[in-house]
Design goal:
Distance between the termini: 29 Å
Number of helices: 15
Main location: cytoplasm
Mean pLDDT: 97
Keywords: Cytoplasm, Isomerase, Porphyrin biosynthesis, Pyridoxal phosphate
Bound molecules: pyridoxal-5'-phosphate
Oligomer: single chain
InterPro entries: 4pyrrol_synth_GluAld_NH2Trfase, Aminotrans_3, PyrdxlP-dep_Trfase, PyrdxlP-dep_Trfase_major, PyrdxlP-dep_Trfase_small
Largest sheet: 7 strands, mixed
Cofactor: pyridoxal 5'-phosphate
Catalytic activity: (S)-4-amino-5-oxopentanoate = 5-aminolevulinate
Structural class: alpha/beta
Length: about 450
């Protein structure tokens, strides 16, 4: 029995499902999740001594790779001086300044510890500012696990949502309206049906929690316009995309593109990269909106560990190292991996779509024309544009692909509905390892049966 299997048995006796976050349990791919012993750069080593290239990268935070020496040193230096002083420290100001400098569409940020807290607070703030209750979210977008955002679409368009989890009261999800992604007509219909009652639309800047599903060109701009003409706020959730897809997040990337730019959300949320692997998240907005938060305004929010100096040191150091060269390295690694995977799928005759925004991507399995996918990917393949389309893929192929990659020395996200994460540390040696593992994995995917 492997050491990981042994520890997983022990874990299941003291922790539900043996994990502290559900997707880690390998529920959708089967098998025993490896327990990590150490990780460095692009590589992760489990307690059985298996060393693999990591395409999870902490689920996004590790833009520079695992345990970058300067980030480790900042954590060491700070923690030796203080761990949790309970009052203000300069690092909090430095991190807020760094974020505001990169994202000129916001003036102030409030630091919290998780993305869940950031979006939960953003929604409370939007309600406090507008004096309205209803929220629109898109099916397949993930914004953390607060009650009102664990909502599933009801039967018709623009209807109030049903609970997406046991333990969430209908009284709470009835304040959320769930509509299909990339569907502005559905958003307009919801505003028409609930005139004067919608506080905000919350959207991932570019969705990446149902696999990657790019916003159609102009979608975010139109969405902002619909919100603003109806007196509602737009909450742009960049917890995953922020400072990963570009120096100013996915919002920043769209502003450089004339077919997409020219919009501002009212509230941003960030997480993942801004903590560099430690727990930091944030919400940010223009001053007149942020004024509503306590202690200045009437919208309450607080946190014992908010702006923790050790976590903030990891975040500030990560952002300062995330320069143009770092983004160019991640983008180039993404180009290469997409090309390698596509080439292997084509070689074995496995139909696919690549779902991609810059350095963030995933692959969907199946013949998109037959499955009714209505988008187009960079190879001219039909690709899914919303959750209903994404779910129609041949997801039974992914466990075979996943385990062949794992056996070939590549640590993949353990679900077909997760993005693949690269880092600036994914160098030629790491890409070589991926190239070596791919032929068998592509064959396993093509041979898989439902
Ligand atoms: C990860 C994520 C969250 C939740 O962040 P946690 O730190 O896991 O609570 C919220 N929104 C998006 C878009 C995410 O990817």
């Amino acid at each position: 029995m492997s050491a990981s299997a042994d520890w997983f048995d022990r874990a299941r006796k003291v922790t539900p499902g043996g994990v502290n976050s559900p997707v880690r349990a390998f529920g959708s791919v089967g098998g025993t999740p490896p327990f990590t012993h150490s990780a460095e750069g692009a590589w992760i080593t489990d307690i059985d001594g298996n060393r693999r290239v990591d395409l999870v990268c902490g689920w996004g935070p590790l833009l520079l790779g695992h345990s970058h020496p300067e980030v480790v040193e900042a954590v060491r230096e700070t923690s030796a001086r203080m761990m949790c002083p309970g009052g203000s420290t300069v690092g909090e100001v430095e991190l807020a300044e760094e974020i505001a400098k990169r994202v000129p569409a916001l003036d102030e940020v409030r630091l919290v510890s998780t993305g869940t807290e950031a979006t939960m607070t953003a929604i409370r703030l939007a309600r406090g500012v507008t004096g309205r209750n209803l929220i629109i979210k898109f099916a397949g977008c993930y914004h953390g696990h607060s009650d009102g955002l664990l909502a599933a679409a009801g039967s018709g368009l623009a209807t109030l949502a049903l609970p997406g989890s046991a333990g969430v009261p209908e009284a709470i999800t009835s304040q959320t309206i769930v509509v299909p992604y990339n569907d502005l007509e559905a958003v307009r219909a919801a505003f028409a049906e609930h005139e004067g009652q919608i506080a905000a639309v919350i959207t991932e800047a570019s969705p990446a929690n149902m696999g990657v599903v790019p916003p159609a060109a102009g979608f975010n701009r139109e969405l902002a316009e619909i919100c603003h003409s109806n007196g509602a706020l737009m909450i742009c959730d960049e917890v995953l995309t922020g400072f990963r897809t570009g120096p100013a997040g996915w919002w920043g990337r769209e502003q450089q593109d004339s077919t997409r730019g020219g919009w501002e959300p009212d509230i941003f949320t960030f997480g993942k990269v801004i903590g560099g692997g430690l727990p930091v998240a944030a919400l940010g907005a223009r001053r007149e909106i942020m004024e509503h938060l306590s202690p200045n305004g009437g919208v309450y929010q607080a946190g014992t560990l908010s702006g923790n100096p050790v976590a903030v040191a990891a975040g500030v150091t990560t952002l300062r190292l995330a320069d143009a060269a770092a983004y160019a390295a991640v983008d180039a690694a993404a180009d290469r991996v997409v090309e390698l995977v596509a080439t292997e799928f084509q070689r074995v005759g496995q139909p696919f779509a690549v779902q991609r925004v810059r350095n963030l991507f995933s692959f969907a399995f199946g013949d998109g024309a037959a499955l009714g996918w209505s988008g187009k990917d960079e190879f001219g393949n039909a690709s899914p544009i919303n959750e209903a389309e994404v779910k129609r893929q041949e997801s039974f192929r992914y466990p075979a692909f996943f385990h062949a990659m794992l056996d070939g020395g590549v640590n993949m996200p353990p679900s077909v509905f997760e993005a693949w994460f690269l880092s600036a540390a994914h160098d030629d040696a790491a890409l070589e390892q991926i190239a070596k593992a791919l032929p068998k994995a592509a064959e396993a995917a093509a041979a898989a049966t439902a």
